Batch of 2 targets.
Target 1
Amino acid sequence: MATPVTESTLQADAPAVDEAPPQQRAVPASEPEADSPPNVSIGSVAEGRELDESSRAVLTCHDVSIYYGAFRAVNQVTMDVRTHEITALIGPSGCGKSTVLRSLNRMNDLIVGSRVTGTIAYHGTDIYSRGVDPIEVRRRIGMVFQKPNPFPKSIYDNVAYGPRVTGMKVDSMDDAVEQALRSAALWDEVKDKLKQSGMGLSGGQQQRLCIARTIAVKPEVILMDEPCSALDPIATARIEDLMIELRADYTIVIVTHNMQQAARVADRTAFFTAEAAEGTGDRTGHLVEFDLTSKIFSNPSDKRTEDYISGRFG
Amino acid sequence: MSTVAGVDAVERRPQPTDVSLRPSSARVGERIVKASMIACAAVSIATTIGIVVALLGPALQFFREVSVVRFLTETEWTPRFENPHYGIWPLVSGTLWTTAIALLVAVPLGLGSAVFLAEYASPRVRSTIKPVIELLAGIPSVVYGYFALTFVAPTVLQGLFNVEVGTFSVLSAGLVLGVMIIPTVASLSEDALSAVPSSLREASYGLGANRMRTVTRVVFPAAISGIAAALVLALSRAVGETMIVALAAGSQARMVGSATQEGQTMTGFIAQAASGESVVGSLQYNTLFAVGLTLFVVTLIINIISIRLVQRFREAY
C-alpha cells in the first residue's frame, strides 16, 4: 500500500517532472486502483550489477491485461520500470510486447476497441483511472516509434513542436532545440541546416531527430518501440550508445526483436511469449520472466526463456 | 523420418531444362491493353485542345470588331442594344460575387465536415455520413436553382432572416451554389486528410499534443496539397456552374455592388444568349465565344495561382 506522501516525495526527486499539477495526482490517488502494491514484484529481482536496488519504480504494472475488442492480446502482466534504468521487453513476434509498451503511455487509446484492465501506475497514480488526462501522461512518458516518423517540417520545427503544442515555458526556443539535439547526439550533424526538412535526413539521423523531439518536452520516461529495426548496424550502434547516455537523465523502456541489443543496453529484461488459447486459437501474450538482464541471459529461471535466448524458437 | 522425406524431396525436384530468357510469347494482350489505355487518356487531352481551338477562332473574330481594351475596361455589357457596349466587367462581377459567396459557405462547412469525418468520427459514423454528403453532389443543378429561387430567396432570406432581397440575387444563388460544392470540398479534403500516415498523428500524440493541435499543426499541413486541389476543383465548379446562377442570380448584366443585388454571371450570359437565335459568324455569336474564352482564362489563372500556393506551403510526407 503506497501512501500518497511517499509518492509525492518520489515525484519531487524525479528530475523531469517539473511542477506536475497537484490535482492531477490528487484525484486518482483517491481512487481504489491507486492501492496497487508497487513493491510486489520488486522482491523477485536478484541483486547484481552496479544497479541501485533502492531505485524506485516509475511505472508499476500490476495484473495488466490488454484487449482489442473481445480479443485478449496480453494477459496479466506484472512488472515495474525503475528510474534511470533501461528496461527491455523481448519475445517472439505477436507476443504483445509492443502492446504492453503502448499501454504505458496510453497510446493504445488511439485504437478503437482497445481496453486495459489491472493497474499501470505512474508514481503511484493509475494512468487509466478517471480524471487522468492521457495528454498529460504522454507528456511525461514520451514515445519513439519503430519507423522514424519525423514531421514533414524543418529540423528545428520538429524539435520545437512538442514544447510549442504543450505550452511549455522555455526561455529560448533556440536553446531548447539545441539542447535537445545535443542530447540526441545530432547537433553537430544538423546545426547548419536546421531550416531544412527533417525528411531529408538519413534513417538513423531521422530516428535521432525523433529522439530529440521526444527529449525536448522533458519527459521522465521514454518508450522506444523497436527503434533500430529500420536502421543499419552503424546507425543502430549510435542509437544504442545514445540510450546508455540518456539513461542518466531519463528512464527508458525499449521493445526489441534483437536479443543482442537487449543484452547490450538493458539493465532489466522482460521476456514475453504468446500462447494459443484452446479452441479459438487466438494468441495471447504472457510475461514469462522479468529479471536483471544478466540473469535472463545467463541463468534464466524459465525453460521457455532459455529456449528463446538460445535461439531454439522465436 | 522427416530427414529422409526431405532428402527424397530434393532428389525428386525437377531440374529446369529450358533456360532461355527470351519472351515466351509476343505478349500481344499486354500491348493491346497499353494502347487502349493511352487512347483513353488521349481523348481528354484531345478534347481540351479541341475546345481551346473552337473557342479561339470565333473569339478572335470578335476581337477584330471590338477592341480588347474596350472589352477589358468598359463597365457596361449591352450587346443587344442599338448602341452596344462590350465591357466584360458586369459579367465578371456577377461571377465573382456568386463564387465568393459560394466559397464562404462551402469552405468552412466542407473543411469542417472533412476534419470531423477524418479525425473525430468513428468509422461507423463516417461510413454513414460520408455517403449522405456525397449525395448532395448527385442533385441536378437545375433542382438547386429552383430551390434557390422558390425557397431560399423568399422563405429563408426574406422570411427567416429579413434580408431585403428580390426574387433574383447573387446572394441566394451564391448560397445554394455553396451548398452544391460542399461535397466536393468535404469528400476530397477528407480523402487527403485520411491519407496522412497515422505515424505522424501518433508522433504528435506521443509528444503530448491534443487532437486539435495534431489536426491543425500536423495533419492539415501534411494534407494541404490535397485540400488545395479540393478547393480549386470546388472553385472551378462554382465559376463554371450555370444552371443555378441562370435561374436565381438574375438576367440583368450590370455591375454588382452588394450581395442583395441581382446580376448576371459569365455562364449565365452564355446560357441566355446561346439560344440558337444567333447566326453563326455574326458578332452576337462571336460574343459568346469571347465570354467563354474569358471564363477559360479566369479558371486557368485560378489554377496557376493555387498550384503556386500549394508548392509554397506544402509539407510533403
Target 2
Amino acid sequence: MIVIKFKDWLRRSFTNDFDVLGINERNVSLIYTNNKRKYYKFADDKVLAKKKLDTHNIPNATTYAVVELMGDIQKTWKKIKHHQAMAIKPANGSGGGGIKILKKNALGAWMSSGKQISEKEIFLHMGSIIMGRYSLGSNDRVLIEECITPHRFFAEIYPAGVPDFRVILLKGKPIMSMLRVPTDRSDGKANLHQGGLGIGVDMEQGKLTHAYDGKAYYDVHPDNSKPIKGKDIPYWKEILEISIKVAECFPLHYIGVDIVIDKVQGPLIMEVNVRPGLGIQMANKNGMKKILKKVQGFME
Amino acid sequence: MNKSFKIVVLAVLVVAIVSMSFKIIPFSKSLDRFMPSKVYEVDYNFFMKGGDKEMFIKTYVPQDNERQKILRKHTVADKVNFKIENEKENKRAIWKLTKGSNINNINYSFTFKGKAIQYNIADNLPITKSFSSQFLNEEKYIEVHHSKIDSLAKSLALGKTNLKSVLTSLYNFVYHIPSAPIRDVTSAVTAFEQNQASCNGKARLFVALCRNRGIPAKLKGGLILENTKKRISHLWAEVLVNDKWIPFDVLNGHFAYLPSNYLEIYSGDHFLITHTPNVLFDYSYEIKNISFVPFINVTAKKSIINHPVSLVKLLQSKIMPKSVLNFLVLLPLGGLLIALIKNVIGLKTYGVFLPILIAFALTYTGYFTGVFLFMLITLLVTIISIPLNNWGLLYAPKMVVILSCTVVSMLIAILVGIQYKITWLTSFSFFPVIIVSIMAERFARAIEEDGYQKAINTIVQTLLTTTLCYVVFSSVVIHSMLLIFPELLLIMIVMSLMLGKWIGLRVFEYSRFSTIL
C-alpha cells in the first residue's frame, strides 16, 4: 500500500501532476517570482502596511497610537486610555503572537482574556513587544488600534472572537478565499493551525460552502450546530473590491489579504500576508493550481 | 535566468565527472582491502657499546595476522651480520657485531596497519579439559600447580558450567587486582600474594589460572602503539577457545578484544630483547601515528597521494587536524541531506542545520550517549523555561539565564564524571551544549505556543534527521570517498541547485492533502 502510494507520489511529483499547490512550488513559482524581498516589509510590518492602506483610502481599523520607544509607553498610554476598548499588537508579530485585546469592564478596570489586567502589566507587555519578544529578537514597535466589533453575521456562526476572511490574490486576481472562525478548542483564535475552523467560500456566489477543522468537513459549526453551508456573506462584493485594491497598491503580486467585517464600518483590512498558507485548499476542498494557471505570472 | 542556471549546472557537472574519471584507474590500483583503522610507523632503536668482544642483539619482530599487517620492514645496520630466525610461532631478528666493530646504533623499522577485533565466545561452550598441550604446562613464572593457584582457580570456577562463565570469573578476579607500575618480572603467585601487579604479573596470573582449569593459555608480548617514544612493552594473554586464540588484556580490561593500536610481537613467556651481557645497552621504540585514508594503501605511490585534486595529501600533511578536515567535507553532505529531508520529505526540525552539528558531536560521544545528553539538556532547559516564561522575562536576558544554567550543569556533570569515573558524563565536553540549549529553548517556547504534541513531534523529527546525518557521518566509506574524490562536493552543489528548483509535493503534504489530490 505504502509502496504504491510512494510510486504514485514520485511519478506525479516528477510530472508535476497535482492540482494542489505544495509549499515548494508556492515558494519557487509564486513567492520568489512575484514578491521582491525588499518589499516584504510592507506586509510583514503592520504599521507600514496600515500607512500604505491609509494613503490609498482603503478601510482599516483606526490606529490609536504607535509606540516605538520604551520611554514613550506611559506618555502614549495617557493619551489613549480614555478608549473603551483597544487591541495591542506587535508590528512584526506572526501567527497572532503577542496580540492583547483590552476592554474596560463596568467599573472601568481593564480586562484581557477574561481576567483583570493592571496598567503595569500592560506596560510590561508593550515593553516586551518593543524588546522583540514576538519578532524573533529584533526590536519592534507596538501598534495600538481600535477594537473591532464583529458584524452579527459572525455571531450567527460563533459568538466569540473575531473571525476574518482570507483572500489570496495573484497579480490582483482573487484566486481563493476562506472564512476563519474560532472554535471552543482554539481559545478565540481563528487560525487553522491553532484549532480554528476554515470555511470554504464560493467566490462567484458569495456564499459559504463547508467547514474544515483540520480533520473533517462539516455543514454546521461543530460546537453549536449553527448553519454554515450556503450562508450568504454580507458585503462580499466590497470584500473582493477592497482586496483587489490592496493588491494594486502593494508592490507584492502574490498575497493573502485578511479582512474583518465591523458592525458599523463594514469590511476592514486587518493584515496583508506575503506567505499565505496552503490550508485554504483544504477548506475549499480544492487544489488552487487550476485557478492559478488561468492567471499570467504563474510559472510552471 | 533559467538559461544561465542550466549552463552552470551542466558545466559544474561535466567538470566534476571528467576530473573524477581521471582518478578512478590510478586509485583503484592502490586500493587497500585490509581497511585498517590505525596506521603507525614503528622504529626499534638499539644502542650498544661494549668494546673488545663479539656482541649480539636478539629481538622478536612482528608478523602479519588477521588483525595486523606489517609492511616496509627495514633495518639499518651496515657491516653487521643480520638474520631473521623462525622460532616456533615467533620470528626473531638477530644482529651480530664483530669484534672491534665501532658500530653502536642498530635500527629496525616497519609500518603497522591494525584493526580492532572483538571476538565472540558462545555461551554454551563446555569446559573440556585438554591434557596434552604445551599450553597447560607449568613454567618458571607461571606456577600452574602451586597450591594457592590451585585453590584460587577452583574457588573462582566453582559452580560455573560453561567456558565463558569460567573465563569471565577468572578475568574479573585478575582485572580487579590493583595495578602498580612494577618493572620487575612478577610471577603468577607473587602477583596473587602481593595483590598488586603490572601487566606482566597480571597476565601470568590469568594464564596460570586458565591452565589450572585445563584451558590452554599463553602469554602474548607486544607494544601499545601511541604517538610517542617509549621503552615499555606490554604483556597480555591469549586463550584457546574452539581452536582459536582469543586475546584478553587483564590490565586494561579487554575481554576477548584487542584494540587497533596493539602491536602483537611474540607468543610465550620470553624477553622481547636479549643481548650480550655486561655491555652498555640502551633502547627505545619510536612510534608515529600516520593519518591515512582507509581505502588507499599507505604504501601507494607518491603520485597518487599527491594527486592535485585529492585531499589525501592534506590529510597526511597534518596541517589540518583530521577531525576538522572530516567535518569540513561532511558539512555540505549533511546540508544536502537536510535539504532533502526538509524539501522532499517535509520533516520539520528546530534550526535548519542544527542536526548536522549534533550528528557530528554524536560521532565523538557515541550515538546513545549523545542522544541521551541531548534529551537531558532539552529536559533541563524546558524545566528552567517554565518559571522564566511565567515571570515574563525579556528574551535576551532569559537566554542568558538558560545558557548559564546549562553551562553550570555541564561543568558539574563533567566534574562528577571525572571524580567517579563515569565516562558518559565526561563526554559532555564534546557536546555542543550551547547549540542544543538554544534549540531546547525553542522547544520550550513551542510547548507554550503550540502545545506538547506539536512540540514533541518536531523534536522527534529533529532527532530523526540527526540520526540520519549520524549514520552518514559515521560511514568510513563516505568520508574516505570525499577525501579521494573532493569533486563530490561539486556534485553536491549540482544536486542542491536542482533541489532548489524542485516544486513537487513533499511526502508529508501528499498525506496532508490526500483527500483533495
